[in-house]
Amino acid sequence: MKFDRLSVSAPGGRQLLRETTLTVRRGEAIGVTGESGSGKTTLLKAAMGVLGRGCEIDGGGIQLDGRAMEKLPPHERRKLAGTSLGFVPQLPMTAFDSRIAMGRQIQAVYCKRLGLSREAATGLAREKLRQVNLLDAERVMGSRPGALSGGMLQRVAIAILLGLNPPFILADEPTSALDPDNRAAVIALLQDLKPTSGLLVVSHDTEVLGRVCDRVHVLHDGELVEEGNLAELLAAPKHDWTARFAETAGQREEGYWSWERW
Ligand SMILES: Nc1ncnc2c1ncn2[C@@H]1O[C@H](COP(=O)(O)OP(=O)(O)OP(=O)(O)O)[C@@H](O)[C@H]1O
C-alpha cells in the first residue's frame, strides 16, 4: 500500500496533509506519531475513503494492490473494507451496533466478506474469539457490545480481522483507551497480525511504536518530518516535537515504557 505524494485539504483550502509519501508492505508495521492535529487520523481516513465533510484529496493518491483508491467509486471502495483493508479503531464501541448481539455482527461480516454460510461463519467466529483469548466465546457472542469492556471489544475487533485476514490493516490509537492487561494483549495481537498483513498504526504508545512497528514516521502540521525505528528517533530526534516526545518517553511509568525491556 502506498501513499504517493498525498495532499488533503479542508474547506477553505487549509492543507491537512502535504505531499505525504509512505509505503506499507505486507509483513511489516509502520507507525505514525506526532502532535495532536498534525493529520494522523486524516491519513487513515483518506485511505478508508471517509474524509470529513468538505475535505478532499487535492494531490497525489493512495495505491492498494495496484489500484488507485482515490479514483474508485464509493461502492467499489466499500467493497475493499474488510477484504483488502481492515481497521482497528481507537474506541471499539463505535465500530459495533449497540443493539445487536456480537455473534450476529461477526457472523454478518464473515457471511458478507468471506461468502460463508451462517453456520460456517459462527464456527469461524468462535475459533477467532478463542484465538484472541476470549475463551468464553459463547458468552461474548450472546452479548451486546454494551455488556463487554472496551478491552474485550478491541479483542473482538481484532478477532474479526484475524478471520478476514486482509492484506493491509489500519489502526488508530489501538491501545490508548485500554487498561494495562488489555493493552499488552492487543500489542501481542497486533504482532500476530503482522506476518500476513501490512499494518499502518497511528499511536503515541511507545510500546506499540517500539515493539510492533518496524519504522515510525513523525507527522507535523501535515508533513512527515522524520522517520526511523523508535529507538533511533528517541536517541537522536531531529524535530522539536520528537525531542519532547523522547523526554517524556523516558519518564513514563513502569509498564508504559522502559529502555531496560528492550
Ligand atoms: N472536516 C474537517 N474540516 C476542517 N478541518 C478538519 C476536518 N477534519 C479534521 N480537520 C483538521 O485537520 C487537522 C488534522 O486532524 P487529525 O484528526 O488528522 O489530527 P490528528 O493528528 O489525528 O490529531 P489527534 O492526535 O488529536 O487525533 C486538525 O487541525 C483538524 O482540526
UniProtKB/TrEMBL annotation:
GO terms for cellular component: plasma membrane. It is found in: Cell membrane. The keyword Transport applies. InterPro entries: AAA+_ATPase, ABC_Ni/Peptide_Import, ABC_transporter-like_ATP-bd, ABC_transporter-like_CS, P-loop_NTPase. Residues 1-246 form the ABC transporter domain. It is a peripheral membrane protein. The keyword ATP-binding applies. Its main location: membrane. Pfam families: ABC_tran. It comes from the Bacteria. GO terms for molecular function: ATP binding; ATP hydrolysis activity. Keywords: ATP-binding, Cell membrane, Membrane, Nucleotide-binding, Transport. Belongs to the ABC transporter superfamily. This is Peptide/nickel transport system ATP-binding protein. It comes from Cohnella phaseoli. The lineage of its organism: Bacteria, Bacillati, Bacillota, Bacilli, Bacillales.
